[in-house]
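Board notes (copied after class):
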Amino acid sequence: MMSMGNRIFVALLICSLLASCKPKSLDSTSAEKNKACEKPLSQKGLSESRHLLQNGDIILRTGNDVISGIFAQLNKRDKTYSHCGIAFIENGHWMVYHSIGGEDNPDEKLRRDPFEKFVGSDHNLGFAICRYPLTENQSQKLQKTVTLFYDNHTPFDMKFDLKTDDHLYCAEMVYKAFNIALNTSHFFATTTHKGFEYVSTDNIFGNNNARILCHIVY
């Protein structure tokens, strides 16, 4: 298992590859979406946002730790969010499936956490809910796909290798789950730099079909 120090080194190495690239400005559609979400909401918004959820919604969050800050730098257009997962209601409770490594998840297996825990203010600066128009069949297939990832104890992918499916990092899990559910290979765009291809958090919500339902700032 890769140590935390090595994890940081790998992330910094990837960030150094991106350092020579000037961030691209957001297109007008994305900029308009973000502008609409700039106003911070109160803590009351946490409970209110839960009532907005639908199966298959993507939950984006901004971690308040150093590692989250590093991973946010992998976003080339919008560095707001550092992590993402997919929400489904199970037995009356909203759960978020997400892939994460680090000291908070030492076995590095894909996690299933209550919505409130995933977006909690104790380890986040804020969060957002992102929705894509899914049919009922697509939503069900998405849930089956993500549940299979979870049941297989799929570990976190510190190599950020899109070519393999036995390990998945957070954005990669969302990317591949949606591709399977929608029977496509390119629902989300990927980012390539100096021959290194990966999917970042802003690739996940940067699709023109994305709708940001709310953005909570703690």
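Comment from the instructor: The CA atoms of residues 128 and 153 lie 26 Å apart. The first strand starts at residue 58 and ends at 63.
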